[in-house]
Amino acid sequence: MFLMLNRHNVLIRTNYGLDFFRFVIKDLQVFGTKCKNCKNILYEDTNASLSIFLKNFIWCFKDHGNDFYKGDVFDFAALYYNLDIKKDFQKILVNINRDLNLNLNNNQSMNERTKIEKQLHFIDKTEKTKAIEYQKTRKLTKHQHFKQSNAYKNFPEAVVFINHNKTGYERRYICTDEELKRRKLSKVQFFGVKENSIYISGYDKDKEQVIICEGTNNALSFVELGYSAISTFGASNIPKPEFLKQYIENKIVYLAGDGDQAGDKFNTDIALLIYKHKIQVKQLILIQFPDKTDANDLLIVDKLADFKNLCINVDFQQLEELYLRQKEENKSKDELINEIKSDEIQIPENFINPVVSLDELIDRAKKEPPIPFIWNGIKKKSFGFIFGASKSGKTILCENLGMALAAGLDSFLGHKIEKSNYLVLFISLEEFWQQRTERNEKQANKLSKDLMINYWIKNYLVINENCPRQIATEEDWQKIENIISRTKADVVFIDSLSRLYQGGIEDSKLAKEVAFRLREIADKYNITLIVIHHTPKQAGKPLTIDSLAGSRMLAQEADFMIGVGKSIDGQKYIKEIAFRYKPENTEEVMTITIDNDLWITNGLNISEATILKTDDGRQDDTNSTLILEFFSKKISNNNSEITTKDLMTKFVEDKTISKQTLFNNLNKLVSQKKIIQVRKGVYPKLK
Length: 687
Hints:
single chain, alpha/beta, Dna Topoisomerase Vi A Subunit, Chain: A, domain 2, 27 strands
């Protein structure tokens, strides 16, 4: 079944009119409830003077260079199609339906709004005098009062006091407590801005639907038709949320403000109140009455029963945007409503629409500079872990990497460093500053000597004893964030994750909170954040994601994970565990050694299994046997001496045994007195 072609259905199908603006203005950029100013295509506009914005659940426009061009989407369409908004409204709808392929049914002779307005403004001559008087006074006619009287009879607790003058129009009273007692009225509810304002008109708690009106007579119009309705006493008197909640919670709620500016304000105000105070409703629906009409008007022409044809679902995403603006800008409700009702809505600069089409994002990405890898799978402005067992060298690895970045080296451990003027901050929470500084001094002296410069050290920042060493409270977290913010560092190391929480990181909730907080810090301050973390005892097992304590939740947020392993015989190595933005080398690991200046040097690229095979008790003698066989062969060939260089050529250069493993086994064979070492680097004979 097709929807009929009318105003409210066009708004439903066009996202409150936004889609028509997008159809006409091809490069329109939408930011929440406002679009970026653009040129007005309705004339030869040389400046971006056209403002397009959401106002009272309909997209509107205003030209700041020409005041003639302003109104809602239908006014814009009238100008675009060169039609009269009043005489040719149906043609405007037909054109929009055609151009945007809305598939709305146009078999009716005129839309609902047109028919209602025709009945209101062009009734037969016998009613013409009443209609004119009605439009002048906006009060009840005798005919309308007669209908309302029936509502009072059916719903006696509806409280509005009617006093007839000679012309038959009603007069309203806001009663004091004494007057209510004198009239012996019960079931009267009070709430709102004014202490003695009466707002409740008619309510049936057993009905699933409830209608909120801005006037008691409008509510009684719905009550007469069997609906549950409540009302304020005027559009400006908004109920307290705790009172409203008891009437609308878990119900389908209709907003029935009048079809004028005050009614638009009323609908927006109530909708924001419901959203802001998290009042749970099944559905929130807006009744869009024809211009300058209300429920009473529709009742006169017997059209109120069809009010659901005028309904539009409220977009909660737009309500969220309006609420966030109120919260972020710390504006009062009245200030926000005035802003919503102004011709141009101001949106914070940092507020953007979170949803775009993929092609828009692809085009945007092409215009942005690519985000580089600063080193080995670690992208700029990313977050991840370097982890390993205790004393595996992970802290020294991170210190060396940080200094390499600060000094502007071209590479580190065989991996390219992206050229940039990096400012590095190392937050060491585990060590006392003095011991750490002694190690850092050795490292810095070695690097400065190699580079023959030392000014780079100003780019490497560290903390002193004034920084908390255990991050246990929100205040501690704020101190860490303040340090990062003040230093304006590009790359931040934190040693270690265990100082950022209390409890067990295996607790998924705790791990998720910590990881998410670190991710937020990286995003908030546009930094590359590298966190050092521990593994449980590996006992010769290969490094995997599961080696990371709290792995499931931590890995979920991490962009990179690099492991530092250590075999039982002391061989250290680096392994690429997981990268979000590049493939990992899962075939090989890189062996490393740490020299006397506490700098890491890279060794061989070999399989992890080769390093760990000595951890298997059944294969402990494999490397020792190979070395002894080499000695026997050389001696049998009358070689009087076997040097370290010979051994390196035989075993290390052909990647049979790593350098560290070779020397570990030589020392073991000497200690077992299976070979004799006369002087350093020379092994002349077997015993």
